[in-house]
Amino acid sequence: MMDTRVPEIKTVEAPEGVEGAGFFATSLEKVVGMARANSLWPLPFATSCCGIEFMATMGSHYDISRFGSERPSFSPRQADLLMVMGTIAKKMAPIVKQVYEQMAEPRWVLSMGACACSGGIFDSYSVLQGIDRIIPVDVYVPGCPPRPEQVIDGLMRVQDLARNESMRRRNAPEYQALLESYNIK
Amino acid sequence: MTPQESAAAPEVAVAEDPVKVQNARVLALLHRLFGEATFTDVEEQYGLLSVTTTREHIHGVIAGLQQDQEIKLNFLTTMCGINYPEDEGKELGMIYHLHSLTQNIRLRLKIFFPVADPVVPTLTDLYNSANWMEREAYDFYGVIFTGHPNLIRILNVEDMDYHPMRKQYPLEDGTREDKTDLFFGR
Q1: Which of A63, A170, B22, B71 has its CA 20 to 30 A from that of B4?
Q2: ipTM over 0.90
Q3: What is the model's pTM?
């Protein structure tokens, strides 16, 4: 006898709305938020050991693509999420900033590991003491290095931001002021 | 010489440390080629012969050892700067490691000079590998290599205005905020 069981596939639940025969009405902001949250294209900016941990997160065992991050984008132009993983030397800082500036809105930044968050053990003249000195950071993932589960949790926090943020965050005065304080555009 | 003595002599030679024998041979060669007054502070730490010379002699010594057909010290393993701020008049130094690939002989040469006048002749005319190593020593210690074709910073940011491995500068980043704890911070 043939096995007719269908594998259980979990899909995203529909946002709140009014449903009837043949139509479904909801706000555009919710639909756009849902779409953005479930297709975050990350740009892995991996400079050291946290990058190795990210590779495990990306691989089939932990599989970051279950969260819609199927395609790590190695061009900042097509990326939504900048994942900075590893020690950022002061010489590297302008490059991180340039990559961030090349990303289109909406854009989020995840800082992974102690070094990217605060400089970590590298309390040194040559190391940037946290990437939030050059670009705004949305989610910090602590650890040295963090486990893949933590990275996935960080990604889910970015998803929460993407889902619930105003669709036109870039026009908000506080966001403008934030970018202004980093001297970006 | 009695037969007993001549029989005993090879045993003595075997018992002697071959590393010490080789070092003595290299030192004798150095003295013969460049004169005894050229070298001071002869050391043999962990069997590695180490001599101190001056920046006036260093280029000639390394060039001579490179060309010498007996020892063929023709490989520059590494070179690096060093800073001893308490040694007045010899605060800065350069250390050169040479290796003879054919005879497996290693030699360490040191020079010291005042921090106010950190000028040393380049080795780039002898070894192309000296190019980046001299840039590194310039970057971290501010040693000026006369005759270097492109003496600019190699590792640190280009607009850095000091030489960070000199001991008067702190190693830590001055802007770090999470370590200002009264008891457990720095």
Answers
A1: B22
A2: no
A3: 0.81
